[in-house]
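Researcher: We're teaching a course module on how sequence relates to structure. For the next exercise, students receive a sequence and then see the predicted structure as tokens, so they can try to spot secondary structure elements on their own. Here is the exercise chain.
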Amino acid sequence: MGRQPPQLRMAAMLTLAFLQLGCSWKEPKSGNEGIEPIQLGKRGWVFSLRFSPDGKYLAVSSEANRLPRFAVWEVGSQTEVFTRQGHLHARAFSPDGRTMALSGAFSLDGETIVRGDPVTLWDTTTWKEKPRLAIAGLDSVHVHFLAFHPKENLLFVAGSHRPRNEDGVLLLWDLKAGKARYKKKAQRFGTSAFALSPDGSTLVTGEDTVKVWEAASGKELWSFAANPSREGVTHVACVAFLPDGGTFATGGNDGKVRLWDLKAKKEKAVFSGELYNSRTLAVSPDGKVIVVGGSRTGDAPCLVEFWEVSTGKRLAKLNVPGLHRIALSPDGKWLATGTADDTKKGGPDWLGAVELWKMAEVLRKKSK
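Model: And here is the predicted structure for the students to work with:
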């Protein structure tokens, strides 16, 4: 009972923020041309989605019966293989998929609560916890993002200082040596977007500004305001690298997707569709398609847009009521979408829902 008030306050804050974005839970009038997803669980709050490197598992952080919950689903069988109660703020899979990193306040065994934002490692072959990481300097940090280096035994940690989520923190932890290589102040108002390049050489963080970092040293290489062309964007909510590592995409509160040339340090393309606010995006494994989700104005259902990188053409779109998060499987076959709180049936159902869409079916649609 002692944990309930802060959880309820968090839920209320998230609900208010989502309503302010203008995203609707209404079912689309025109449907999605007969395309139907596979639904995992019931519709509700989904805070984060992450596929394992082999695409076998999908990690989901959500709310369940007004209590936070974390689960791992086996994609092929659509069954849960691992679950814990608690707020999991960040999660990541190691490159080989055998280790999962988690951070947040959660239950180890159904009774013992790990409080604060410690970083724990789990063996995905046994679903048992590995020796606890003793990362110094995280006592006052709310961890938002975790990422394993693709080649070295390193873990990147990004977050913000409590209690107001101010002063973003960027930390590189050496898993073998058991110590930090560096700890940097990142964003001024916390960190809302984070991406590591495919080769592990470069990091991008975002909020009211976008900063590009040398991953190994934590040296800031380049930064720019979220509003570079004065078109209304003041907040970057999502960022992702293209497979070539030389280009990254950002989405923010102007609803557009922007592509940035890392070497030239400038904007190279802008994709503009129906979105009023872009809050989540992903890049296909071959780098040919960018998928972005967010809200539209008024009471129109939330939307997922699919953009062809080479031409800037919108290939398809999906109406997804209550959309909150998206993720693409590493083989490019599945799009996972996560919803926000469902209020259509007279009250919230707090079990976070995930829907799996077949990308081949979606991309056969014509954008209208």
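Model: If you want an answer key for the exercise: DSSP finds two helices and 28 strands in the chain. Residues 134 and 178 are 8 Å apart (CA to CA).
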